[in-house]
Amino acid sequence: MEILGVLSAIFGLLIVIGVPYLLISHSGLKRRVRALELRAEALSAALNANRQDTPDSQSAPRPAAPAPAKAEAPDNTPAEISATPASPPSPKPTPDPEPRAYVFRQDRLQALGRWLGGNWPLALAGLSLALAGVFMVQYGVENGLLTPVWRVIGALTLGAALIAGGEVIRRRHGDDTDTPTGFLPSTLSAAGLVSLFAGILAARGLYGLIGPTPALAGLVAVAALAIVLGWFHGPLLAAGGIIGATAAPFLVGGSSDAPWLFYYYFALIAAAGLAVDTVKRWAWVSALVLIATTGASWLIFSMGAGGLHFLIGLLIVTALTLIVPNRSLTPTHDGTSLLGAALGRHPLPDFPTRLAIGMIPAAAIGGVLTMQEANTLTGVWQAVAMLALMLGAALIWLRNAPALADLTLAPALALLAGIVLQAAYPSGPLHAAFAAAPEAPPETPLPLSVSILLAIAAAGSALAFWRMKRAAEADTGPTPAILWAIGAACFAATATLLLDFTWHPASVLGSYGWALHALAVAALMTLLAERTAATPDKAERRLRTALFAVSALTMIALALFLLLSQTALTLALSVMVLGVALIDRRYDLPLLGWFIQLGVIVIGYRLIVDPGVIHGIEATFPEAMLAYGGPLALLAAGWKMLDHRAGQPVRIVVESGIWTLSAVFACVLLFQIMGENDMGSHWGMGLLATVWFASAANQLYRLRMGGRLFKVVRLVLAALFALAGLGAAALQATLLNPLFKGLFGSVERVQGPPVLDSLAVAYLPLAAVFAVAAWRLDTLPRLMRRLLAVISAGYAACYIALEIRRLWRGPVLSVPDVTQPELYSYTVAMMIAALGALLVAFWRRSTLLRRVAMAGVALTVAKVFLIDMAGLSGLIRVASFLGLGLALAGLAWLDRMMSAQWGDAPRTDDSPG
User: Fold this and answer.
1) In terms of CB atoms within 10 Å, which end of the chain has fewer, N or C?
2) Residue 735: phi, psi to the nearest 5?
3) Domain ranges (residues) in the chain
4) What is the secondary structure of 793-836 as a DSSP string?
5) pLDDT at 32
C-alpha cells in the first residue's frame, strides 16, 4: 500500500506542477510568437522600402539606415523591436558569438558579492526567519512545552504567515531592486517555505503523527507552492528555498523510523528547483539544486539510510535532469557533446546538456559506491540493476539526444569498475559468495553471478549494435556509426576479460564451463559481424565488420587458452592468425592487422618465454618439431597471404616473427640433438644468447613501423633482450669458455665430431644472428650495422680458431701451450680469410671490404714475423715463410688486377647488407 501511496503522490506532483507549467509556458509562447510577428512585419516593411528606392540608389548612393537594436529578454525570448523600417541585413554573414557560460561565472559571483554587501541585513533576516521555524520544533522537543501536534502546527503556521506576508508586500509595494521593499518579499517567502518543509518532516520523522503517504503528499504540495512562488519572486526565493529545504532535515535533528523518505524529499526539492529554472532559465539555480540535493542524499546514505532508495532517488533526479530543463519526456538534447567540447568543437554544450553531463556520471559513480559499500548480496544486485537500467536508458531513451551519446560511457564504465572492485581486496559479497562456491556441499548448484553479469554486458553490446545500425542508416550525424561499433564490440568482450583476470571463474565453473561463456560471447560477436557485413556498403562497413570479427576471435582465443594444452594452444593461435590473414585478403579489412600483430606477439611470447624455450628443450623431439615447426609453417603461410600488405606494419611483424622464431627453433633443435642436461655449458649459453639477441633484433626490425610510443616500447624491449643476451654471452666467454678452466677446476669439453661439434653450436648461431641483423636492420645507422657485422665476423673467427685448436689438441682446449702445427694453422686460416675478403670485395666492388682484406693481410704478416718466427722451427718455419711469400705475391697480383679493372668506374662503400 505504501508503494501505491508513493505512486499516487508522484502522480499528484505531475498534476500540481504540470498544470501551472503548461499555463505559464503557454503564456510565454504567446509572447514569443507575438514578438516574432512584429519582427517579421518590420523586416518586410524594410525590404519593400528598399525595393522602391532601388532606381535612385543607382545614381547616388544613399547611406544605409541604422540597423534595429536587438535585445533579448531574461527568459531568452526576443524583446519587442521598434517598428521603424530598417535596411535589410548585410549579405556577409556574421559569425555567431561564443556562447556565454551559464553557471557560476566570475561576473555573477562578483554580482552576488556586491548584492550581499548592500543587502546583508536581508540575508541575515531570511536566515533568522528560516531557523525560527526549525528551532520552534527543536525547542519544543527539548523542553516538552507543547504536544507534538502543536509543535508541528506552530511551524506550519509560522511558515504560512511568512509566505502570506511576503506575498502581500510583493503585490502592494513590489519586489524590484528599485523599490524600498526590494527582495523583502522573496526573503519572507523563502523563510516560510523552509518552515513548512521542517514542520512536515517533523510530523513524519520525529513524532510519527502522519504516515509516509500523507507526508509525501504534504511535501509535494509545498514543493508545488515553491515552484509557483519562484516563478513570481525571482532567483533569491529559489536559492533560499533550495538551501533551506535541503538543510532542514539536518537542522531538525532526531531520528526517524523511515529514513528512506528523505531521498524522495530531496528528489522533490530537485524537481521544484528544476521546474522553476526551466521557465526562468537562470541556470545557476538548477546547478545549485542538483549539487545540494545529491550531496544531501549521499550524506543521508553515509548515515545508513539504506541503499535501495538512495539508488532510486538518484535515478529520479537523473530523469528529472534530462526531462525538466529540456521540457520533453523524451530527451532531445542537440549540439556539442562532452567529447566534442574536449576536442575543441564550438559552440560549447548548452545549458540542459551541461546539467546532464554533470548528473549522469554522478549517478553512475553513486551506483558503483553503493555496490562497493553493500554488505549483502541483495544490496550489490540492486546497484547492478540500477547501473544496468541506466545503461539501457542511455542506449534506448537517449537515442534522440545526440549531445548525450558519449554519456553512455558513464554507466558502462561504472559496471566494469564494479566488476573489478568486487574482486579487489577486501572482496565484495558478490565475489566472495562466488569464490566460496567450491566449498559448498556437492548438491549446491553453481552460482549464476558471473553468467548474469555477462548477460548484462551482452545485452549492452546488443543495444549498442542497434544504435550503430541507426547511425549507419542515417550515414551522417554527430555520433558516427564506428564509435557505436567500437562500444558494441568492446563492452561484452572487456567484461569477459575482466571477469577472467579478476574473478578467475574457471576455478569455480571449471575450464570447460567458463570457456562456454567465452564462446557464447564469441557467437554473439560473430552474429553481429555477419549482420554488419550484410548491410549496405556505407559508413565504414568493412571497418565495423572487422571490429566484431576481432572481438569474436579474441573470445575464441580465450576459450582456447582455457581448454587446450600448451602445444595445442600455440598451434590454435597460429591457425587463427592464418585464418585472419585469409579473411583480410578476401574482404580487405585492415583493422584485422591489429589482431594478427597481437597474435604473432602472443605466439612469440609462448615459444620464447612461457612455456618458452625450456619447454621445447625438455619436450620430446616430435613434440618440439610440432610446437615450433607447426607455428612457423602457419606464420609463413600467413605472411604469404598478406602480400597485399607489403610494407605495412602487419606484414613486417609477421616477417620479423618468422625470423626470430626460426632462430629459436634452430636453437631448440640443437638442444634436442646435444641434450638438455648440458644447458650450463659453453654451447648452452651460446644458444640462450642467440635466443635473446634474436629477440632484440626482432624488436629493432619493427622500428620501421610508425608511432613514437611504439618505437619507445620496442627500444626498451630490445635493450632488455640485449642485456639478457649479453649476460649469457659473458658467461660463455668467461666461466664457460673452453679455453679456461672454470671455478673449482672444472673443464669445458668439446662434444661431437670435429667441425660439427659443440663449438659450432656455441658460436655459429651467434655469428648468424649478428650477420642477419647487419643485413636486415636497414633502419639502424650505418656505423651500428658495421659494428654488428664485425661482431658476427668475430664469433665466426672464434669458432675457426677454437676448431683449429680442437683438431690439434683434442676435446680439452684448456691444456697449456700451443703446438707448432697449431700455430701454423692459424696463419693459414688468417691468409685464407684475407683472400676470401679480397675476393668478396672484388665481386661487390667494395672499397671498404678491400681495405679490410688488406688489413687482414698486414695482420697475418705481423703474426708471421712477430710470433711464428720465434715459435716455429725446422721445416714448419720454412713452410710458413714460403707460404706467406707465395700468398703475398698472389694477393699483390690480385690487388693490381682489381685496380686495373676498376679504373675510374664507380666503387661502392656500402654498409653490410
Assistant:
1) N
2) -65, -30
3) 1-53+71-88, 126-252, 684-816, 829-913
4) HHHHHHHHHHHHHHHHH-SBTT-SS--HHHHHHHHHHHHHHHHH
5) 61
